[in-house]
Amino acid sequence: MNNKITDFSMRDVWNMASLRPDRPLVERDYLWASQLNQPTVDNFLSMKGEKPTNPPNARSRRKFLAGNIWEEIHAIPFKAMGIYVNSQEEVWTHGRIKVKGKLDLLVHGKPDYERARYLISNLFFEGTVKDYLLNVVDRFNNMYGDSDFAPMVRECKSCSSYVIEKVQRGGRMIGHELQLYHYLKGLNLPMGYVDYISKDDALMEQVKVEYPNKDLDARYERTIDELYDYLVHNERPPVSPLIVWEGKFQRNFYVEYSNYLTLLYGFETPEEYRNFVSKTVTSRNAVLARLKKIEKGETTPTGKPIVLTDKNKVALEEIEKAGFNIKELVADMTDIEEEEVNN
Question: Could you tell me which CATH number the domain at 11-110+148-232 has?
Answer without folding.
Answer: 3.90.320.10
